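Practice problem: predict the structure.
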Amino acid sequence: MQVRIEDVSPVEKKLFVEVPWQTVAERLNVAYRELGKGVALRGFRKGKAPRSVLEQIYAPRIHADVAEQLIRESFVSANREHQLGAVAEPRDLEGAQIKRGEPFAYAAIVEVKGAVTAADYEGMPLERRRLAVPEAEVDKALEQLQKEHTELVPIEGRDVTAAGDVVIASITGTIGEHPVNQPRFGVDLDDAEREPLPGLRALLIGLPFATADHPLEIDIPADHADDNLKGRKASLRATIVEVRAKNVPNLDDDFAKDTGKADSIDGLRAAIRADLEARERSVITNETRQGALRELVKRNQIPVATSLVERAVFAQYNRLRQMLGMPPDREGQGLTPDLMTKMSSGGADEVRGQLLLEAIADKEGISVSDEELNLQVAMAAKAKNQSPQKVRAEWAKDGRLDNARWSLRQDKTLDFLVSKAAITEVDTLTQPASADPGPVAPVAAEVGHVHGPDCDH
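Answer:
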């Protein structure tokens, strides 16, 4: 096989390939032999039709199949032998016609990673938020823990609902044009944040426990946060099924012991603060890493292949859907050309970031040890309540183990950049961190790389 390569751009090459006729003939022989085994033609027993007859009928199909096979095989071979670093299948094919006795020749454009050199990555100016957990956050977490340990108990000595009760009611009726039928609908008469409908709590206070088919009329404000509710009228009827009082524990040493987190209320507050500070440190670490990546990309606007940008945009789009609680869009039907254009800049920078971090990791000798990878697997196994062996086997099978190693290496490289940066401690970041959790698998991978289920190609 003869291969000639021309540079088209830093991330594109033109491939000229010639496959000898002997190889072409061998592939044709195999194709016609396999076809002849199963085809049934009038006048011939099954599997006995001569090659000349098969060629008259099936030549266009066989030639197309063999041409596709030759392109695929020769492309993989050329990519490997010439270390092209191809990131997409060949496109803009020229030639690729099978002609008897002649080499199979074609030309195609191939997108590649290209040579990546990261520059000016030490001493980057970065902001890092100071660690700060206000006492009010500790109070809020303590109150939440108190709620979680609150018991609902039967009520004695009264038969009318009161503030603080939890009412279970059968609710029927309509909200706007939508019917409502909730046989056991719970309402905490104290919880304003989770009030299902504005004013519902007040309407349920002071009702006898034996209330049946009680009318509830609610005009929902036009500025209500829920678009499905605002400006609508709720016409409901309530039948009380059950009423319970809340037995709220006192915030004392006994409560602290019951939580299993501390032996005293002061110790519990300290434990809560430690947890909150650990979470905040993790947030600050991720913010600082994002800042380092932004600055790195800003200083190194390397060219990137279009197919990699499209791949990154597709991944970003599905991460956004996941954040919004939407199912993945595997076919990208919602990714319109306009949306693709709007997201392309961010997609290009994501690819640049991955390529630059890989180049820096290679240059600086940054790697991930088996111990570090095992720790990542163990943490995931603990979160899933599974054995590390089972999780590792699953990850190895579908490519997530490679993705985990890649992700750890990217993070270690970012930590290296942060360690070499000029850090300024601030109370508030000038540029807030993105809500996007970032890629879980490399989008800047070469053809043939095995990805996990979260990858998009």
